[in-house]
Amino acid sequence: MAIVNPAHIKPYAEIDEDERKLAEDLIFNRDDQALARLITYFESVEDSGEQDSGESDLAEMTPEERLHWRILRRHKADVETDIDILLNRDPDRPKVRQPWRSSIRCSYLP
């Protein structure tokens, strides 16, 4: 058992599909050679330290999609802006107090 900082763990959604399949094969014991294939794969892969975060696609997304993307990938920037856009989209809707601001900063995002 270990103590880990979740901010240093790569979110599941950002793990490459091939790498995810290799790890799941090992975890779920789908194949007797799963460990050997996982080791072989990662011996041949070089980590550049850079992540393809997908942030370039944010401009093309709807506010709902952007908010989902940001929460799923733990990106704090502009979450409040997207929530405000969604809450203020319908002019006939009564205005909502915003007590969620402090709780979302503390609870949901690292």
In brief:
The protein has 110 residues and is mostly helical. The chain has 5 helices and no strands.
Overview of the structural elements:
This protein is an all-alpha fold and 110 residues long. The protein has two domains: 33 residues, no CATH class; 54 residues, no CATH class. Helices cover 45% and strands 0% of the residues. Helix 1 runs antiparallel to helix 2 and helix 3 runs antiparallel to helix 4. The radius of gyration is 19 Å and the shape is elongated. The model has no long low-confidence stretch (mean pLDDT 80).
- Give the C-alpha Rg: 19 Å
Share of helix, binned? 40-55%
**Helix and strand string, N-terminal first?**
HHHHH
User: Biggest sheet, open or closed, and with what strands and sense?
Assistant: none
Strands, total number: 0
Q: Return the average pLDDT rounded to an integer.
A: 80
Count of alpha/pi helices: 5
Distance between the termini: 22 Å
List the main descriptive attributes of the protein structure presented here:
110 residues; mainly alpha; 2 domains; 5 helices
How does the SSE layout of this entry go?
Elements: H1 17-27, H2 34-44, H3 63-72, H4 79-87, H5 100-108
